[in-house]
Amino acid sequence: MIGVNLASATSNNTPIVQKETSTATFLTITPTIQNAQITQQQVQPYGIKGFLVKQAIKIIKAAIDKGGDVLNYILKWFDEDTAKYFNNNKSKVVEALDDLESWIDDANDLAQSTIKTKLNSLLIEARVPGTYSLLIADAIARTITWLIL
């Protein structure tokens, strides 16, 4: 009877394959060591929450372009003046959201307040006046939290 069994060496994690051969009167076991390859999966620094935040940002960018419930959720936080500015300057907001999405990869803290602060600075860099940037950042940070919870 010929078969193959898999065992682990006691001193390390190298697998040992035992080849069994038998004759009518005795059994011979010959251990053979195989090269073990240990591979690590690539770990994303932002984990599951970061993944969800990035997905929420993508949904928000699509909503800014297409409309719908998510856009309505954002707009409900605005006064009339901010809503008008937002509708006339969507490209600046999307530009800041692109930068925010890239920033998520290196972020250690993904709390709503951190996202709001970072997005506010990115909106200002995208030439959104401070009068509107904080309100827009706050509404989008709230929407991200709403989408991932």
UniProtKB/TrEMBL annotation:
Organism from which the protein derives: Anoxybacillus flavithermus
Protein name per the record: Uncharacterized protein
Organism lineage string: Bacteria, Bacillati, Bacillota, Bacilli, Bacillales
Lineage top rank: taxon: Bacteria
